[in-house]
Design brief:
The structure holds 2 protein chains of 2 kinds. Chain A is of the alpha/beta class. Chain A has helices at about 30-45, 70-80, 100-110, 125-130, 150-165, 180-190, 220-225, 240, 250-255, 260-265, 285-290, 295-315, 320-325, and strands spanning about 60-65, 85-90, 115-120, 135-145, 170-175, 195-200, 215, 230-235, 270-275. Classes of the chains: A alpha/beta, B alpha/beta.
Chain lengths: ~325, ~180
């Protein structure tokens, strides 16, 4: 039945808490709430006027201490399509390069009455550190080797689009797991939603005791391809080669590259994800990246919708669904 | 306990919708350029039923759309129970069309205000009509319906419950009197 009782003004309890730091601390219901909220936002980006007024008057600072194109632009589109006002601060050319601390930078921004900070930082834990010290909402856009929650969420949304459900899926995450915050957010999100997760990569790029996160280790890429429904191929961070983790890029491609020949031997067609930017011919071959089972561009499209959902849920009040997500009676 | 009374039963709702369908065609002077847009959620079902009645009477196809106004609300921070955002789907541009907003209950008028704002982002309709099953009074904005199935006077503590068989298993309009 439709209820149109006069609206009671209750204290506002945000659906996701104040900050989004990682998927490790979210419940499965909270993750599903974000994915469900992202669905209608996909349509907003298809409109002739790609804008809704939900965050009108909110001020958001994108604080990027590390290079980023895709994530920063995706957040910026998400913010603008919700009608928020945005400012980008990059570490180069700001007072950060003069030695100002993270907290001082954020407090100064907060003194200008901002509502949210989207932060990317090279140190694991930077987003949480900031969230504990300022009143604005903080969204982690990648912190060191810790988490990149919105990337994990857009991967989940893309898998759900493709398969209908994440539960029961077999997903292999391939490549540099050791240095990858994308891998960590994926492992948390996928396992919480009931997927089976395996990791595959050279032993030098796998964290020790990774099994404790509830994943299987598959040492050979051929095993991962034979086992999985979907492969999430991570970028080989080229600076790792100089650091001696792998002998050479050619060697890596020969042993761990996701190639058409290897996929042709799989028992079924695998869906291919990649968080970008790609090293074509290293971790993934061009005919796979551009092939019929690649969802790499849908991932980018979904990224905007997922970030809109996160911004909207952090900015807004509680919902019946969010009360349920926190395990309370609605 | 609030007292409940039945305002419209299934047959009364059917008759009312039939009359509303005729009024839609009358006010538009035909079916040219008509677009019926239901407001999530019960407005969507009502728009569908009215569209089918118009189609049966006039023998033409009537386009429909659905609108979720959650992102256009003026109370993001104040509402306790905010629903998850629903689907918005409008067939192309609204330019030059007669757009009929269909909703179940008209109360404060704030939903309609939000819908009008949202339409502005989809084009410039030639005309917008407001068509509601129940007008319960209590407006907070200068908004009035063009077509109302039932007009009643209610107190602020009252509640008008519209049940639709597609969603609730039966058709009924009930008034629950508050204290």
């Amino acid at each position: 039945m439709r209820s149109n009782w006069p609206v009671a003004t209750e204290p506002v309890v945000p659906a996701l808490g104040k900050d989004l730091i990682g998927l490790e601390t979210l419940t499965a219901d909270q993750i599903r709430l974000i994915l469900d909220t992202a669905e209608p936002f996909k349509e907003v980006s298809e409109r002739a006027i790609k804008k809704v007024p939900a965050l009108r008057g909110k001020t958001i600072v994108n604080l990027f201490f590390e290079a980023s194109t895709r994530t920063r632009i995706s957040f910026e589109f998400a913010e603008k399509r919700l009608s928020a006002d945005t400012v980008n601060v990059a570490s180069a050319g700001s007072s950060v390069s003069k030695g100002e601390t993270l907290v001082d930078t954020a407090r100064n921004l907060e003194a200008m009455r901002i509502d949210m900070v989207v932060i990317r930082h090279g140190s694991s834990g930077a987003a949480q550190f900031l969230g504990e010290r300022i009143a604005s909402n903080v969204i982690n856009a990648g912190d060191g080797k810790h988490e990149h929650p919105t990337q994990g969420l857009l991967d989940l949304l893309t898998l759900r689009d493709r398969f209908g459900s994440v539960a029961g899926l077999k997903v292999a995450i391939c490549g540099d797991i050791l240095h990858s915050r994308v891998a960590r957010s994926n492992i948390w999100g996928l396992t919480k939603l009931g997927a089976e997760v395996a990791v595959c990569g050279p032993p030098s790029l796998l964290p020790r005791h990774v099994e404790e996160l509830g994943v299987t280790v598959l040492p050979r890429i051929e095993d991962a391809i034979a086992w999985a429904d979907a492969l999430n191929v991570l970028r080989l961070q080229l600076e790792r080669m100089q650091a001696g983790f792998i002998p050479s890029l050619r060697e890596y491609n020969r042993v761990f590259g996701v190639t058409r020949e290897r996929l042709a031997r799989a028992p079924k067609d695998l869906v291919i994800l990649h968080p970008g930017p790609m090293n074509r011919g290293v971790e993934i071959d061009s005919d796979v990246a551009d092939g019929p089972f690649s969802v790499i561009l849908p991932q980018v499209t979904n990224g905007v919708a997922v970030r809109m959902a996160v911004l909207y849920l952090l900015a807004g009040g509680t919902t019946a669904a969010s009360a349920a997500a926190r395990g309370e009676a609605a | 306990m609030p007292s409940r009374s039945l305002l419209l039963d299934e047959r009364a709702i059917a008759r009312t919708l039939q009359r509303m369908a005729s009024q839609v065609v009358e006010q538009n002077r035909g079916t040219e350029g008509l677009l019926l847009v239901g407001i999530q959620r019960r407005g969507v079902e009502l728009a569908e039923r009215i569209a089918r009645l118009v189609e049966a009477a006039e023998g033409v196809d009537i386009p429909r759309g659905k609108l979720d106004i959650t992102l256009y609300r003026d109370d993001l921070q104040a509402v306790g129970a905010r629903p998850v955002v629903g689907e918005t789907r409008l067939p192309g541009s609204l330019d030059g069309r007669t757009v009929v907003i269909v909703d179940d209950v008209l109360y404060t008028g704030r939903t309609v205000r939000a819908a009008l704002d949202e339409f502005a982002d989809f084009g410039r309709p030639r005309r917008v009509l407001l068509c509601v099953l129940v007008d319960r009074g209590g407006r907070e904005l200068p908004i009035q319906p063009d077509i109302a199935g039932l007009t009643i006077t209610t107190r602020p503590g009252d509640r008008v419950d519209v049940s639709i068989s597609e969603l609730d298993g039966r058709d009924a309009v009930e008034l629950a009197r508050g204290d």
